[in-house]
Amino acid sequence: MLSSKGKEAVIPALPNPATGSANPAASLSSLWAYITPALDHIVRSSTNNTTKAPAIDVDFYAGVHSACYNYFTSSRHDGSMSGIDFYDQLDKYFADAARELLLGAPQEDSDLIRYIIPFFNRYSVGAQSANRLLNYFDRHYVKRAVDEDKGWLTISDVLGHVAKTAKITDTREQLAKKLREKRTDELRKWGDIDAGPEAFVAAEACAEAASPVDRIVHISALAHRRFRVEVIEPLLAVPKFKKGTKVKKKILKTKGPGPGPKGRLARAVKELLESSEMEEEERARLASETATMLKKVGVRPDHPLRKKLAKTLAPS
Predict the structure, then answer these.
(1) Residue 118 has pLDDT above 90, yes or no
(2) Alpha-carbon distance 261 to 86, whole Å?
(3) Is residue 80 part of a domain?
(4) Cross-referenced InterPro entries, in alphabetical order (predicted)?
(5) What is the pLDDT of residues 158-175, one digit of tens each?
(6) pLDDT at 155
């Protein structure tokens, strides 16, 4: 996904592939075959530019939009079923792309942060570009699914809150207000939603990424959620030792409670923050970008690593 060090090569826009007389909207398999090169180009192409995804030709861009529109509005396809099938394909695509990044991770903890940050930034801008490319699908299927209570926050998630605060005399409007209040409370955990529309959208994107994998979320949040599940969570996982191993015995002999074993990412962050061989500005930059990454992919604010980074980055 990232090219080797050196002068950045300009990646030309991906041209519209020749399809002959084939109709990309004829079936799910033909639609997926048509758009996969575009996804590969904007998500997986090797580039050192981590702030902008490679472009695709305007004709190809329009072709993808038209193919999606024709497929999802065709009377030959059931709108709901075709939507979930396509959504599942996207989910699998981002899962595969994220796993590729994890497989390439360096073995040394000291190298992990420098590896994962640029790769995540590249993956993230690709996900945002894919979100724009498939904007029609986002509006056609995702918005409808959210309206049908399949989104990141469902009625069942907030029933407990409503039950605790509801009164027998509450009207339907009052209950709806309590539901909105609960949603607002959840979003405040992810950002200052009073700062404006952009801040609100950013907070909701984080909340979507934090949701369980069976919830329907917007495409960029879908990609970020998969990055959390396939990359971040395995790196956060605390290693499990078999009973009776030397490592286990060593831990048991330690005086006091001790910190215990940590996952790779936690160890890498600890090494980053305690490094004496790095400029303070570079350390702060990497710590800040790590904190941003964890937030974007939906690692919750009360996670120990997020709290540690927040404390480190807080103004003194």
Answers:
(1) yes
(2) 41
(3) yes
(4) Cullin_repeat-like_dom_sf
(5) 777 777 776 777 777 877
(6) 81
Task: Look up the CATH number of the domain holding residue 99.
Answer: 1.20.1310
126 within some domain: yes
Report yes or no on 23 lying in a domain.
Answer: no
What the block records as the tokens of 67 is 């193919």
Q: Which of 3-7, 61-65, 79-83, 116-120 has the lowest average pLDDT?
A: 3-7
Judge whether 197 lies within some domain: no
Going from the C-alpha of 100 to that of each of 43, 66, 71, 261, 268, the distances in angstroms are: 12, 30, 30, 26, 20
Structural domain for 84, as ranges: 28-146
Instruction: Say what the pTM is.
Output: 0.86
Q: State the total domains in the chain.
A: 1
Q: Does residue 209 contact residue 294 with C-beta atoms inside 8 Å?
A: no
Express each pLDDT in 54-82 by its tens digit: 999 999 999 999 999 999 887 665 555 66
Over the stretch 210-220, which tens digit does the pLDDT of each residue have? 999 999 999 99
